[in-house]
Amino acid sequence: MRCVSWLLLGTSLLVLGPAVTGAPGQCPNLCHCHGDLLHVICFDVGLKKIPRVSDATRLLNLQRNSLGDIPTGAFSESKGLISLHMQNCQLKEIGSQAFKGLTKLIYLYLSNNEITSIKPGAFEDLTELTYLYLDGNQITELSKGIFAPMINLFILQLNNNRLRELRPGTFTGAKDLRWLHMANNTLTTLQPGSMDEVENLAILHLDGNRMATYPIAAMSKLRVVEELTLGRNLMRTIPDLAFQSFGRYMERLHLDNMGLERGKSAPLCPDPVLILPFIWFQFSDGAFTGVTAIKSLHLDNNRLKTLPKSLEYGTLTNLTLTNNPWTCTCSLAPLRRWMDSSRIRPEALCASPALQRGRQVRDSPVFSGCKVKQKRTKKGTRQ
């Protein structure tokens, strides 16, 4: 195979000479071409400019070349492209009309570059684009309507950027978006209205950001979220009905490593002169109201002593609870009853009362005297 590749490379050098950009209908210099130019592979070959390829080309792989930017019209003769790979190309900016003419493009990979901004009109003509990867860049903001041409966008990867906030209109036009990944940014909030256009999201990753409060005004517009990750956001508040708008569909929820507490906490550094107020941490009892399909819930590495009363355990098949200071009293009896009836008995150490400290919740005898609260029935209902 390696011999064939070198033969192809040698043939292209003889045909094209020293030109880097090549000519339509021919394999660009330094690249490997397959299937009558259907696939053009220019992986890590030292290109400085985007090569010209035939409109017969369906896949163009430009990974690991120092391209720097995408000139307007760079793909004007590549209108047949379906998949474009530009990872690790040291791209700094996506200019207006950078992909003009690529009306058939479905896959666009721009991961692991140095992109700081995306100009309005950058994605013009990308009406068939379905998968867009922008993760591993330095993008700080997204302008209103930037994704508007992408009426078929299904997956959007924005992990590991520097996004600070989401504003209304960001996703205008992207009504079919289903997977949105925004983990490991610097988001402090999702503004009300910022998620209105993507109410059909199924997967939403927001872990590793800087949100101090659950953005309920924005999130309440979502209808069918199946997987939500919020871990590593130091949220002080998760209110009543936080997940209700999509609770019938949500199966996987990550709330790990968030510093979650229930109740008030003293300031971390009390001042002997100043009287500092207590900080209120509210993981509300009604936070899980309407959540009826949850299968996997991650609550490890928080400061939880008890769990919200609205949490229903019946559908759970995976629950992580480690590294929380659990208070082993009857307030945790519903959890213990679920453990006793389930094959899954997660680790959870009692921190109090003193006699139970260090015991596993699943093994503590303290729950044997806890009464089961009967659900109230409506008037006239027979028992």
Can I get a quick summary?
Helices cover 7% and strands 16% of the residues. The protein has helices spanning 2-16, 216-219, 333-341; strands at 32-34, 39-41, 59-61, 83-85, 93-94, 107-109, 117-118, 131-133, 155-157, 165-166, 179-181, 189-190, 203-205, 227-229, 237-238, 252-254, 263-265, 279-283, 296-298, 318-320, 326-327, 350-352.
How would you describe what is shown here?
- With 383 residues, the protein is mainly beta.
- It is 7% helix and 16% strand.
- It has a 13-stranded mixed β-sheet with strand order 1-2-3-4-6-8-9-11-13-14-16-19-20. Strands 15-18-17 form a three-stranded mixed β-sheet, with no helix packed on it.
- The radius of gyration is 27 Å and the shape is elongated.
- The N and C termini lie far apart (76 Å).
- InterPro entries: Cys-rich_flank_reg_C, Dev_Immune_Receptor, Leu-rich_rpt, Leu-rich_rpt_typical-subtyp, LRR_dom_sf, LRRNT.
- Residues 324-371 form the LRRCT domain.
- This is Chondroadherin.
Class by SSE composition: mainly beta
Low-confidence stretches: 1-20, 265-270, 272-276
**N-to-C span:** 76 Å
Which percent band covers the strand fraction? Answer: 15-25%
Which of globular, elongated, flat, extended, rod-shaped describes the shape?
elongated
Number of contiguous helices = 3
Strand order of the largest sheet: 1-2-3-4-6-8-9-11-13-14-16-19-20
Average pLDDT works out at: 89
The level of helicity is under 10%
Radius of gyration: 27 Å
What is the N-to-C succession of helices and strands? HEEEEEEEEEEEEEHEEEEEEEEHE
Largest sheet: 13 strands, mixed
* Number of DSSP strand runs: 22
Signal peptide: 1-22
Domain LRRNT: 26-59
Pfam family, one: LRR_8
GO cellular component, one term: extracellular matrix
